[in-house]
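Supplementary Note 3. Input sequence used for the single-chain structure prediction.
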Amino acid sequence: MSMRARARVRSARAFCIARTPVHLYPSSTSRYCVVAMAAAAGAEAPAWIAPAVAALRAADALVFTAGAGMGVDSGLPDFRGPQVRRATRHRTSSQQLSRKQERHRSPLLRFPTTASSVSTSARRASGGHTRPCSTWYVSVSARRASAPLRLLTRRLRGQGLAFSDVSNPRSFQSDPRFGWGFFGHRYQLYSAAEPHAGYAVLRRWAERLPHFVFTSNVDGAFVKAGFDQQRLVECHGSIHYLQSMEALDARGPIPAIWPAQPQLRRLRVDPLTFMADADTLPYCAAPAAGGPPVLCRPNILMFGDFGWVPDRTAAQEERLESFLHALPRDTRLVVVEVGAGTEIPTVRGWGEEALDAFPRSTLLRINPGQPLVPRKEELEGRAISVPEGGMRALTALDAALGGAEGVGCDRGR
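The predicted structure, written as discrete structure tokens, is reproduced below.
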């Protein structure tokens, strides 16, 4: 097969993988049959494939950044509030919810429409292909897990509460059983979830070049996927660690942060009421001899949180700073951003700052609903919009690269 024919097959393979649901691949053989058919038909890859592949081939170092959308393909919900109900038709950002839709919106779960923030150029780059992006109803496992969340949604709606009211230290103070019922469900959900194929793609790429991970996710998925914990920043903490509710007031005999698994494996949560069993709530030793036990809480930065212990995250961020300071300013750093939204723009902002810090860096923004990149003249060609889901886009890029061996293969040229 000639080089041109091989390139055509790689391009078609990337296009097919980016456009075909994973569950339609019963085997690798059928996948390549689809590729061969697409190549014969002269299928073209999306416009973002070529510049993204070129950037990865020329990369000297990698930083993977991830928001809540990264976990969607693993069957995890994107907890954000208050948003529109699930939609199956695309709408532009200028279109507003009707009064009826506003009354029936979910106060807990994000059900966005794909095209609400996708520009005309982004749609053109994706070949005119857009699809609904329900970040909860995206997989069989997510649909199964959504039933108890719907019950919680109705409960919150009845009380006039939003996600920010539950993901808040006040929920542990006002009703510890409900506070731990909510976070206990999340812990069990995250612990049971398996990282999707996109994590494996990133891990293979990481083996090729110096790298780091920066994520706002608290699910611990990067650790479960095999990434080095010394090269990871969890900027909002992790649900797999605990701290005391009074840790900032009395550090004495109470450790600042400790692993959650020994205590939370005993936690029992009623899936119908989202109430934790009082006998299984996690407590830590009293700060003073003879004092009452002190309730534990997740080591997660919540809304309105002035009691979060940032020691673990601060140490992670110091290692990231050391990593970046060791890179020459002319390093061709590629930031692969997946599923980071605008509602809490910590991750998106970090990637855009990297573009300023490293003049030869490139940002790949993978997001099916909010893929827009900064429109600055000095960033022309260095910020690439990828209007696709995380697993879909990463799998397509890996195929177009010819596997992990293609990452960094052109550096120094």
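The first strand starts at residue 61 and ends at 66. Residues 6-42, 81-145 have pLDDT under 50 and may be disordered.
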